[in-house]
Amino acid sequence: MGEEQAADRCGDGETGVLVLGATGATGRLVVRQLLESGNRVTAIVRSGGKIPEELHSNPLLTVLEKEISQVQVGELIPLMEECDSAVCCLGHTMSWKGVFGPPGRLVADAVKLLCQAALQIDRPGPFRLVMMSSTGHRNADFHEKIPLPDLCIRFILKLLLPPFADTIAASEILRTEIGPSDAQLEWVALRPDSLIDRAEVTSYEVCISPTRSAIFNPGQSSRINVAHFIARLINDEDLWNIWRGRMPVLYNRE
Fold first, then answer.
1. Which residues are CB-neighbours of 64 under 8 A, at least 6 positions away?
2. Which single residue of 10, 77, 96, 128 could bond 231 by disulfide (Cβ 3.0 to 4.6 Å)?
3. Reported pTM
4. Reduced to 3 states, what is the DSSP secondary structure of residue 220?
5. pLDDT digit string (tens) for 179-220?
6. pLDDT tens across 123-149, in order?
């Protein structure tokens, strides 16, 4: 299964969205795309000063300054009750402390927290969660075939790089603990390939599984294309129904 997306703007949205990782390189673009789509956005950030001023001044954006690792389920539930969806773009800082220092399970613990809160919310329909994962994670539900050399390198990376293991653990929480058809929580774990920066949304494709080796023949995924697709997932009911409970892979079209 695949889908091409042209460089169009997302349609108007009405949903409230909770965003984690809103100050990151991709998270800021997700917030921008959601605001441009008319979504109400609540961002939990370590430092609100890292959000660009033009976004900070948008009346649709609410910024809460707090370490996500210090947020309790009881604090998160009221925020999520005001939203229909959440987006997790959390990642580790690419420094020695960020890679090997605490919290080692930043992403997995945040996804676990979101799931726990979502399952306690009394709402007429399921809460929706989009997580930014990686092509380095194999979706076992689709029995994705990975060459032995790739598997060996992934195994080594999982042992040596805590952020890589953390992202995989977060995706596995959704795949194994929530499952593809939970009545209270629906999810999509988006797997971009090598992330790059581009100024504008370009044409891209979304596939159900990787079509190339993430280790030996990686593709590219511009952060702005990732943000564009996430915003479309939030606002397009038909698109959401295609990908819920799945781990789509996004590639820029070359």
1. 42, 43, 44, 45, 79
2. 10
3. 0.89
4. strand
5. 998 999 999 999 999 999 999 999 999 999 999 887 788 899
6. 888 999 999 998 877 888 877 777 777
Q: Which amino acid is at 153?
A: I
Query: Of the candidates 133, 216, 146, 204, which has an alpha carbon nearest to the alpha carbon of residue 175?
Result: 133
Over residues 21-55, the pLDDT tens digits come to: 999 999 999 999 999 999 999 999 987 777 888 88
Nearest to 139 by CA among 219, 221, 229, 209: 209
- How many angstroms separate the most distant Cα atoms in the chain? 51
Residue 159 has pLDDT above 70, yes or no: no
Number of domains the chain contains: 1
CB 7 within 8 A of CB 202: yes
Q: What is the CATH number of the domain that holds 141?
A: 3.40.50.720
- The contacts of residue 254 (CB under 8 Å, 6+ apart) are 219, 220
User: Residue 196 corresponds to which tokens in the numbers above?
Assistant: 């790059």
Q: Which domain holds residue 177?
A: 2-252
Residue 222 phi/psi, 5° resolution? Answer: -75, 145
